[in-house]
Amino acid sequence: MKVKLINRTNNALSLLLYTKNTRLQGGETFDDVQQWSHVKQMEHLAYMRDTIKSSWEFVNYTFEISGVTRAFTHQLVRTRNGRYAQESMRTVDVSGAEIKQPEDPGDPAALKMWKKYANETMNVYIDLLGCGMPPQDARGILPTNVCTSIIAQFSLRTLHEMASVRLCTRTQGEYQDVFRAMKAAVVEVHPWADDFIQVACVNTGVCVFPRYTECPIQKFTVNGDAFYPELKNRIKKAWSEIRHEAVPVVKDGRTM
């Protein structure tokens, strides 16, 4: 598996801060924001992480992902707010493609059987092409673990939302590995983006899959606290009894 960041938004941090700041009357220009000190940028960035996320959509990242399975890409493209360009199996002869074996097949006999039939499937595919069958028809016999490549583009907001669950231990291993590599590629060029791309329990302290008790991290979350049901009920009761409407005002360039 290989993940490469091939493109990104120029002046991403300044653009991110400016699109947030421009919502307020009398906001500074884009050139002004670019001249902000690092300290001021980080202060506004910390504020942004806890507010409306619409501005995050102005920053985009494009990844080239190769050596991954079709099983993975079938899951990846379920993210609606993304752009994709994938290697074709309709017109391309993929007889030389790798078929990735399971990470933990269990019984060695199961892995032996898996390899046997995966190889036989690829040989049948090659034979079908040799008999003149078009690739678009012959591909139907191939397993979903045949390797492929895909180019994917996501906004910072989408990466934030994907990270919430795709960095979770509940996610399939291959997806976790790819997304960890995607995050690392982003943070390498934009270290400030690290806090934007975190698994849900890091952001909120709450496990989003509380029924998955096999997770070794869950014991560190609110869900692992025996008193959590009581806390949840107290919050639920308070919400049902109290009506409050916020009246936000602008102060020092921020909505309070």
Verbal overview:
The protein is α+β, with helices and mostly antiparallel strands and 256 residues long. It has two domains: 2-84 and 147-238, Gyrase A, domain 2 (2-Layer Sandwich); 90-141, no CATH class. The protein is built from ten helices and six strands, in the order βαααβαβααβααααββ. The chain has helices at 12-21, 30-34, 38-48, 70-76, 108-130, 135-138, 156-166, 173-189, 200-204, 228-241, and strands at 2-8, 60-69, 82-86, 147-155, 250-251, 254-255. The strands form two sheets. Strands 1-2-4-3 form a four-stranded antiparallel sheet. α1 crosses α3. The longest helix is centred in the middle third of the chain and has 23 residues, at 108-130.
CATH fold name of the largest domain, please? Gyrase A, domain 2
Overall geometric form: globular
Q: What is the average of the pLDDT values? A: 90
Main sheet: strands, sense, barrel: 4 strands, antiparallel
Q: Indicate how many domains the architecture comprises.
A: 2
List segments where confidence is low: pLDDT < 50 over at least 5 consecutive residues: none
In CATH's first tier, which class of the largest domain applies? Alpha Beta
Helix proportion of residues, in percent? 40-55%
| Percent strand | 5-15%
| CATH structural architecture of the largest domain | 2-Layer Sandwich
Span of the ends, CA to CA: 45 Å
| DSSP summary, beta strand count | 6
Strand order of the largest sheet: 1-2-4-3
CA radius of gyration: 24 Å
Quickly give the structural class: alpha+beta
